[in-house]
Amino acid sequence: MRYSALKLIKEAVTGHKGWTPQWRDPEPAQAYDYVIVGGGGHGLATAYYLAKEFGAARIAVLEKGWIGGGNVGRNTTIIRSNYLLDGNEPFYEFSLKLWENLEQDFNYNAMVSQRGILNLIHSDAQRDAARRRGNAMILNGSDAELLDTEGVRAMYPFLNFNDARFPIKGGLLHRRGGTVRHDAVAWGYARGADMRGVDIIQNCEVTGFRIENGKVLGVETSRGFIGAKKVGVSVAGSSSRVMEKAGMRLPIETHVLQAFVSEGLKPFIPGVITYGAGHFYCSQSDKGGLVFGGDLDMYNSYAQRGNLPVVEDVIEGGISLIPALGRARLLRSWGGIMDMSMDGSPFIDKTHIDGLYFNGGWCYGGFKATPASGYCFAHLLKTDRPHDTATAYRLDRFMTGHMIDEKGQGAQPNLH
Amino acid sequence: MIINHPLLGPRDAQEFTYLGDATLINRPDWQSDNAAQAFHDYLYLRDNPAGEHRELWFHEQGDRSWLVVTRNTVTHEILSVEMARDVAKAAAAERSAQ
Q1: Which of A317, A341, A365 is the last residue of a domain?
Q2: Which end of chain A is more exposed for a tag (fewer CB within 10 A), N or C?
Q3: How far A410 CA sits from the closest chain B CA (Å)?
Q4: Mean pLDDT of chain A, nearest integer
């Protein structure tokens, strides 16, 4: 069913009885051409673009739980294209361009809101780094503006400009960045894929791979064996656990990142503010809740919850930046588990097993990458060649020395 | 989380910094024929288990000792705590005995 204003009016006057489920609930077939493991944002986007852009048929998405129940529904919804390195920025710029046209493309209201992202600057060294990054962004077709203190004050007069430790000396403004309604991204891709014949199979856990003579033949699941010519794994957070079933060890650790939302308030933060020095970033949702977060809990974890020291750290950072935050009440906090890779950058690559492909290692930046990740993974699955913007995301890059280390932290995943 | 330090007793995990998998103690032999591959695997690849995990914690705000903590990554329960130097010495003794 195609959504339109006309359809909405018609349903409004006829008691909203004509709406149908947004996707089917099919039984798995015996075999498919493409099986995507993981029905998160990236897996659904992969199936969507495989069907829509690359004309592939007989596609299934296998999801252990339900659509929208994983990290695609647990993140802080920010989209941006503000990376420094050549291996990254063209990819994220491609992603942002897909976001800009996404709602028309999949005919679904994902509430893409380009409200601007401001990275705060507190010192001369940070200003130099921001200028360099801004130039790299502009060279790759993105946008960046360097603001001085007065420029920041005009946007956000309520910030604590004269903090003794981190006085605000300016900011790097990325106007095309913003936020998106994250659940709608999952639903929109699921519906778009389903309309093009993709089978979305929920409550179907992959328990193993059937591999013979170095070639994948299909996947063992909790609902029986499903044959496949090509299998794409897109299960960030659990990548090590799933790929272990294919005998692979990955350059990934799993960590937990917490996020928070306050009670609903009147509009007061129009964009996204990041305060890297204080381990804090914040935006305000359309419902009025302040959505914010900070650092990882720092230790390996598969628990979808964190501990109190990080709650304290994030809220301290928040109140030091926005003193008014002290008056707001915290509504919810939660944790999501993520693939932290050894250089802070992701993987979209073939494996050494014929027909088995891997997409993961998104660290805490997977949401903004959803469209391009799906598109580039679909491109790789269909053509066996990486998309032009994703050539650097190789699994063997640590062996060949082509790391993409945005922060220069080395092989210490919790610091990226 | 509370880490039961073998010398100091129970301490808040906030006093510690975290390094990662305790296999980082077992540095490969740089003179072996496959040293490049062994160091790649040592430095970059991880088992990353969901469940029991042996890992290195550094008591930065305390006595600055390294500990090997066995912890469940699903429940955050800490199962045992050893001095990293004891673990390293035991591993070295085992290697020389072979």
Answers
A1: A341
A2: N
A3: 10
A4: 96
Mark whether A49 and A190 lie in a shared domain.
yes
| Domain identity same for A63 and A127 | no
Q: Is A357 left (phi over 0), alpha (psi -120 to 50) or beta?
A: beta
Contact A29, A200 (CB under 8 A): no
Whether B18 and A414 lie within 8 Å, measured CB to CB: yes
Mark whether A173 and A187 lie in a shared domain.
no
Torsion B41-B44-B48-B52 (CA) sign: positive
Residues from A in contact with B at Cβ < 8 Å: 238, 240-241, 249-254, 298-303, 307, 309, 342, 398-399, 411-414
pLDDT at A367: 97
**Chain A: residue whose CA lies nearest to B51:** A302
Q: Which of B17, B45, B73 sits opposite A251 (nearest CB)?
A: B45
A194, A50 Cβ separation under 8 angstroms: no
Give chain B's domains with CATH numbers. Answer: 2-25+34-97 (3.30.2270.10)
- Domain with A281, as residue range(s), is 117-180+253-341
Of B21, B44, B49, the CB nearest to A251: B44
Cβ atoms of B80 and B70 within 8 Å: the answer is yes
Interface touch B75/A303, C-beta < 8 Å: yes
Each residue of A53-107: pLDDT tens digit? Answer: 999 889 999 999 999 999 999 999 999 999 999 999 999 999 999 999 999 999 9
Residues of chain B with pLDDT under 70: none
Helix (H, G, I), strand (E, B) or coil at A29: coil
**Residues A236, A382 share a domain:** yes
